[in-house]
Amino acid sequence: MQFRKCVKADEVAYLAVIIEETDKNKGAQGILVVENFSEIFTDNLLGLPHNREVEFHRSFTLSIVFLHRHSFQSFHRLQAQSPPPSSETPLSSIPDLDHEWSFDSDENVNIEDGVCVDDGVNVEDGDDGVNVEDGVNVEDEVNVDDGVNLRPCSSSGPNEPFIGMVFDDVEDAQAFYKVYARKKGFAIRTNHTRLSKEEKKLIAVDYVCSREGFRRERSKQKERIISEPAETKIGCKALMGIKKVGEKWIVCKFVLEHNHLLLTPRSTSLLRGHRIVTRVQKNLIMTLNESGVPTRKIMSVLSKDAGGDFNVGCIGKDVENYLGNKRRKLFEEGDAQRLYAYFFDRQCKEPGFVYSMQVDENGCMGSCFWADARSRASYQYFGDVVTFDATYLTNIYKMPFVPFSGVNHHHQTIMFGCALLVNETAESYVWLLRTWQEAMLGRAPSTIITDDDKAMAKAIGEVLPNTTHRLCLWHILQKFPEHLAYVYNRFPDFQKDFHHCIHNTITIDEFEHEWSVILVKYELGDNTWLQNLYNRREKWVPAYLRSTFCAGMSTTQRSESMNKFFKDYVRSSTMVSDFVHQYEKALDARYFKEKEKDVRTKSTCAILKTCYKIEEEASIVYTRKSFTIFQDELFNSQRYNSTKFSNEGESKTYRVVPHGKETPLYHVTLESGGDKVTCTCHMFEFMGILCRHILCVLGKKSKLDCLSQHHILERWTINAKSRPIIDIPILEGHVTPQDDLAMRKNSLMMQFYVIAELGTKSRKKLNHLSLALDKVHNELLLMEDDDNIEESVGPVGRESTYESISQRSQVVSNFSQTIQDPPRVPTKGRPKSLRAKNPKEMQPTKKRRCSVCKNEGHARNNCPLVRDIGHTVQVDSTNLDS
């Protein structure tokens, strides 16, 4: 064994120990890797071993690199390098060595005390450490006479590969070259592989620079010119080739030079070959994606979590590709088939879940309806008023999303089931309403609010003949500017008068009078559209519907608000099976908000504004939102004055007006006993809460000491859902295996977060934590699962609910019928130009004009002149070459 000078820079000393055994018959057959530093060095930090024997079982050349004098303790692995294929000059012939170590006859190496290395490098035993004198050239290296250069490791850059370098397996070689490439400023890819002839096993691999080779010429489309992306391959020759020799992999080819500029290590992370979406990132991406977070915001979260954009390891395009690949893999078996499998499996696990799906003669999915147990039970409590809207598209097939919604005791929007329709015909609506009513135990709502659609109105009249059908007032009013645009432009006061006629008339007589005045004043008596709308006034004019209970709703705003709510969870490109899953998540969020309101109502006390006993009683009976409405009416009742107007038998009528005013005028009729009371505003009949006018009269009669049970509507009370629904089984508080696994993960993550915060405060704590985690990780890999988590929820750490749906889809094989995906169908919509436009809208829009030929109707990429010029240039260049 011989020592020879390597590198010295300031206080950093490098020393190479080169050991060679020559066997002319066997040659170099193997390598030695020293895993434990303590096996080579004694407890003396800087001293060399004393009379230690190291046994070598193969011919080898071992290069041991000593780093900084204070880094010996952390140096735990020694690099082993194989010798050149042949070595005729033994190391003993190298001059200027003060000591030479020879091999024993039994192939053992005896390491003597003390070694002096030439050129001023003196290594001695003792506690003073290694003394490195000046005069050592930093560029020196260990030279072997056969031409192989052994370069020591440097903290300033990666080790360069060299011919003869040995790896345990092909993965180690690829990882080494990839790390080297990243630090040097380029990316790599696998170029050539070779298999053995007999066993067809991998025996050789070439890793090349990502800019190796040249781009293949693409076939050009005649009708459309596609701009070529930037060139990436420019014929770079840099590579590292490895081949398998025995059980090891040896570098057989290595080209260092590149024909292009190299990037900085920081910028190299953006190259395609160095970008990767890790497993942890995949889990986070799927969680954010399922929560409706767009890709740009997902990247923002990843950047924040990694400490900067360059530390993420991927870009937004990688996230999009990952999500796209997951979706394509998920829907290979068919979107509709997976939806059917999900419904089937859900019903098996949740008896209260119901669904129905239509299939046409071609086996394609048609309309489908579903409702869970919570929605069905909520309908039994709050199903007196239902809104029904079919104007929202949420899926890739453009199937209208039709939610059945209502309002709960907290005045929140709730769901009573929903459907996806293949079309908007009367037949589809009839099927849907019958299916929905059957799921709701045959109970029909007292009022249903929809938009103005003839097919929908026909279906409601057929299936729900005893239900009051009310049209959405907002949709009706939106049509007036379209059909009466010339009136709006000609008469500035029309909008004000029309608004007063619709919204401020209390009685039917008042509305009829003002409507007649408007027809005469604005010359609308012959307007056919307005006359048809007037003939259906009982369905949309508030004066006709004030006495009908609508839970305070006059429009389909509840349904539309749910549509807006679902927009955060789904997009127009959402598959139907994915949409159902997102719908369930949105539904969970709505019911969670309801639970929040329940807790707030039961755990807090309302602030009272008056001294009336009725207010205190109402604060105990009503939910917090309902009490707030009642409290406002009670407080404002003090602004009104009531006088007796008539007395007929057992009923008395009072005239109620604001203090000091004559209008608006309301009449309150009070029956004997005071249990039955009505007002011309009909707020109690319309909403179920006493109005300020009735409270004004009751206050004058000194009847505000208690709230009569006749005036309390159960649906607005705290105990509105106390009545059990026997026919609908609800798994309240049931924890599914998937939820149980998620809770376990969350508990561990919270604990790990605290540990990570402590472990990153110092390097000593960080090293201790890393070793502890490695130990625990290895122990967990050896442990067996003592419960059936794997069998119930699938693999631990699965990336998304896509896999859970995939697990459920195994029941598809039990179905005798295969359901095909539905076709995309056109939907209804407003014609493009039926209303008069304002002068700004009347201006002609600027047509698309080509930037090359200046003609209209096409763009530059489709310009015929560009295609002609392209062919001409190609011919001319050919002639010039010839």
Write the layout of secondary structure elements.
Blueprint lengths: L1 E8 L2 E9 L32 E3 L5 E5 L42 E3 L4 E3 L3 E3 L7 E2 L9 E2 L5 E2 L15 E2 L2 H15 L3 E8 L6 E8 L29 E7 L2 E8 L9 H4 L10 H12 L4 H12 L9 H15 L4 H15 L4 E6 L5 E7 L1 H10 L2 E4 L3 E2 L6 E8 L5 E8 L5 H14 L7 E4 L3 H10 L4 E4 L1 H11 L1 H6 L3 H10 L4 H14 L6 H8 L6 H4 L11 H11 L8 H28 L9 H9 L2 H13 L3 E9 L2 E8 L7 E5 L6 E3 L3 H5 L4 H9 L36 H23 L3 H20 L6 H5 L7 H8 L30 H4 L21 H18 L1
Parallel strand pairs: 18-22, 22-23
Antiparallel strand pairs: 1-2, 2-4, 3-5, 6-7, 7-8, 9-10, 11-15, 12-13, 13-14, 14-15, 16-17, 17-21, 18-20, 19-20, 20-21, 24-25, 25-26, 26-27
Describe the structure.
The chain is α+β, with helices and mostly antiparallel strands. The protein folds into seven domains: 1-155, no CATH class; 166-217 and 230-273, no CATH class; 275-322; 337-472 and 555-599 and 795-824, no CATH class; 473-545; 613-716, no CATH class; 843-876, no CATH class. The strands form seven sheets. Strands 16, 17, 18, 19, 20, 21, 22 and 23 form an eight-stranded mixed sheet that branches. A five-stranded antiparallel sheet has the order 11-15-14-13-12, with helices on one face. Strands 24-25-26-27 form a four-stranded antiparallel sheet. A hairpin with a 5-residue loop joins strand 16 (354-359) and strand 17. The longest helix has 28 residues, at 576-603. It is elongated and about 115 Å long. The two termini are 68 Å apart. The model is unreliable at 1-157, 790-815, 829-843 and 869-882 (pLDDT under 50).
